[in-house]
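Data deposition worksheet. Section B asks for the primary sequence of the deposited chain exactly as it was used as input, without tags or linkers unless they were present during the calculation. Section C holds the resulting structure in token form. Section D is free text for depositor observations; keep each observation to a single sentence. Incomplete worksheets are returned to the depositor.
Section A, Depositor: J.P.
Section B:
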Amino acid sequence: MTDQPHASPDDSSSPRLSAGRLRKSRAHWRRGLFLTAAALALTAAAGTVLLSLAASPSLLVIGAAIACGGALFEAGRRSARRDFGRLYDAAVGAAEEGDGFGDLVICCDTSGRITSTSPATTARLGQSLGAFVGLDYSTFAADLAAGELFEASDVVSYDVRQVRADPWQQLRRRLTALAALPGHGVVRQGSNRLTGDICIETIEGPRWFSFSEAPIIEDGRITGTRTLGRDITERKAIEAALEKTRDEAEAASAAKSRFLAMVSHEIRTPLNGILGMTALMQKTPLSAEQRTYARAVETSGEALLTLIEDLLDFSKIEAGRLSLQLEPTSLVAVVEDLVELMAPRAEMKGIELAAYIDPRLDRLVQADPIRVRQVLFNLAGNGIKFTSEGGVAIELQMVEEADCAVDVSFLVRDTGIGIAEADQQRIFGEFEQADPGPARSHGGTGLGLAIARELTRLMGGDIRLISTPGEGASFSFRLSFPLIEASSSAASAAPAQPFPAEAPDEVEEPSSSVAVGARAALALLAASFATKDETPTPAPAAPTPTDRQFAGRRILVVSHALIEGPFLIRRLFDAGADVTLATQKDIEQEVVGSWQPDAVLIDAAAGDPLAVIERIRAFSSTPVGILISAAERPMLPELQAAGYGGYLVKPVRARSLSAVVETLLGHGQFAAAAEPIVSEPPPPAHRLSVLLCDDNEINLLLGRALVEKAGHAVTLGADGQKALTATATMLSSGGSFDVVLMDLHMPEMDGIEAARRIRAMIADRDGRQPVIAALTADALPETRARCEDGLFDAWLSKPLRPADLETLLEASANGDIAHAS
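Section C:
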């Protein structure tokens, strides 16, 4: 119970007494109207009976009286019904939509006075039924939104059933008095309507309501306005929780990006020293063993760098900040460079790695070469990792060419362990492994395939996987590239040389038997990959006359390789040659038979190459070339002495194959590769003065060595403040720096601020602005966004590659790059 005072029944201002008097007055009025109408009706009926025998004009008068009585009766009935409804609403509250859900319902008339409220309105605000009837709506709305109505009620308990009338009676008198004044209803600045989402103080505490207004229509005319306030506190709580979760997720993503940037910077800094010093060491005289060790260190450093790049790329993809950098690109160069780079990894496992590129794709297209290479690198690297026998094949086929664009089909197949159907979607997830668990036999972060798929989708395609456990895997996707310009085919890239005199002047179109060797090679290749692919590789079409570099030539390929051998045959067939694939035991039969080849290519892996050449020379002088691995280069002088007329290093490039075949056909000369000769570079045409600023001693040592080896003078600075001091000293002596290499992350003063002050210092003295290059391991775009346009003329990423620095210094010395002041 509460000790709040209740309204006395005798109080003339009591809402109960006022409502009773109003009911009594209106009841008397309705009763009188009803009796009047009834009397008129009875009079009309009596008149009808009395005058039934009268003349017809009297019937008209009687009809008029009946109509008038009926109209008066209907008007009285409707008026009584409206008054009864208003009295009920005032005393009990309007039974409006939503009352059962605790909604606030306020009805007002056209003059802006509240005529009724729902029980929930008064109950949730701690007042008695009908407490707000008669108040000015605009003032009520403004005070309610501001929370003053609830504060004036002085509520102590939150019991809805308790009646709290007295404080509201005083407030009602105040509002009624204010409403009577000129300009009533404007008691505060702001909206005088209840619209939108508003937080209101209630007996349950602050609650959110969504208000909407609708007209009240009676008898076809607007008689007032109904305002509905729906309780949306739970919805607001969910929205707030979602917003908080979103903010936390964005903060976590930003923190993760900062963490990855920091970790990347901290790892790249020592990695810069490892790779840079290794590159410098390989430029010094080394024994073969030392060079092998140095290359192993370099390979390990590159692998670590690849891991860092994967983590950063995944972070960019997840944040949606990764974009394509389109430029004129040769897909042939991208794929062949990639295969050559990954060949040592495959060779270490004793498996093959080879590529075939449709010769029609030897043209420039608009693409992002880094992202295309990264997708193929991840797919081929995945194949090498999970393959212990056989090999990995990369194939590019032109699907169609239309509207100055070319559609290319990419296929990466391996003969590895395969992937179960249940795992084929899972492995494309982040940090997923084909063989998860602590006992897995294959390492990795599980990001390679996830990044490959996202990059492929970014370029407008998607990766398709077909695999069966124990039968390898086949990854394929299709991309479209705008054409830049058409160029000659790969086969015709070699210098045009006349054929020997015995070659026919005109060659007929190849017969059906010409393609037999190539089709057999494709069948062998398909047999190597047991994957059930629904789209088998088509047999090669007869080459066009413009591509027939070796038309009419018969070439024998001796190889046991399941991937490289068939690919060699496809390339030669594309060039118009009549090609046959044979094993070592069939050499004599193929060379001295009716089909005598013009040249023979022998894979050194098919057997002892010295014994093979002896067998051939015993009965034929056919020119012979050999395919070797990079590790077999030291054997080249001995192979040349044994009678080989040319060599190819696996994996074979298309242009190298064409050049070697030309050599075997008598249009070139055998050249054995020797160990690289270390020589000092020629002095530069213009000796630069370079300021190198870095807080890492190893990076300073590496940078100084690289700059001095390029023939330029270098000044060192350990932080931004020392760089300013060195610049001021140089300017005081009348000189200036030509190039400034500025690390961005340094103590005391970072590189960005140091670059700004160097620019300002030189501008104040009307000096010549140097080329300032940023050195950073921070790959995030926010770093560049912090720098105004024209602050840095070039960006060099860490680990610093000697070739990149040499290119920058050479461009600066030649005037190809300068500060745009």
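Section D:
The CA atoms of residues 310 and 597 lie 49 Å apart.
The first strand starts at residue 104 and ends at 109.
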